[in-house]
Amino acid sequence: MQERDVYPVAGSQPVATVSDAMDRFGVADGIRPLWRGAVLSGPAFTVWTRPGDNKGLHAAFEEIRRGEVLVVNGGGDSTRALIGELVAQKAKALQVGGIVLDGAARDVEELEALGVPVFARAVTPAGPWKTGPFRVGCTIAVGGVPVSPGDWVVGDGDGVAVVPRGEVEVVVARVGELIAGEAERRAANQALVPRG
């Protein structure tokens, strides 16, 4: 069985700073957290599915590992929810690191109660089809950003960023430098004295 990357060094870095560390690339357009306080960080497990169809997500749960983030290209469809409470329960039981959907979800209050971090393009009460087709473990696009299996995905209240797996260590180091610089600027701002 092939080993998959985990990124304990990456932690839960702020999405805005991660994007800054990549010259402000890598942010998935239009993908937002579905509940306040949702955060995720981990290697991507990818699914490409027909819009409004979640058969591929169920197939992914047969392979996904603890800590991996399920990242789904659902064609940006907002008319059918790819996940809801029951799928989130499965994700929680398998200790999935979170779910990112270029598509829709439902059962937002239940997702929050379960504590499963879900980021999506839309919310709708309409349920999914389950007929396929789909692809698992391929390079996809989410919010206009390419995502390959094993890329580092991080999400917080600002949205989602994707770091190519070969650049994780460099980006994490750069994030550390940026955070230190921001702390210095923050201290300087707090030392300002009003004129007059």
UniProtKB/TrEMBL annotation:
Its cofactor is Mg(2+); a divalent metal cation. GO terms for biological process: methylation. InterPro entries: RraA/RraA-like, RraA/RraA-like_sf. It catalyses: 4-hydroxy-4-methyl-2-oxoglutarate = 2 pyruvate; oxaloacetate + H(+) = pyruvate + CO2. Its EC number is 4.1.1.112, 4.1.3.17. Substrate binds at residues 84-87, 106. It is an enzyme of class 4 (lyase). Keywords: Magnesium, Metal-binding, Methyltransferase, Transferase. GO terms for molecular function: 4-hydroxy-4-methyl-2-oxoglutarate aldolase activity; metal ion binding; methyltransferase activity; oxaloacetate decarboxylase activity. SUPFAM superfamilies: RraA-like. Belongs to the class II aldolase/RraA-like family. Catalyzes the aldol cleavage of 4-hydroxy-4-methyl-2-oxoglutarate (HMG) into 2 molecules of pyruvate. Also contains a secondary oxaloacetate (OAA) decarboxylase activity due to the common pyruvate enolate transition state formed following C-C bond cleavage in the retro-aldol and decarboxylation reactions. Homotrimer. This is Putative 4-hydroxy-4-methyl-2-oxoglutarate aldolase. It comes from Actinosynnema mirum (strain ATCC 29888 / DSM 43827 / JCM 3225 / NBRC 14064 / NCIMB 13271 / NRRL B-12336 / IMRU 3971 / 101).
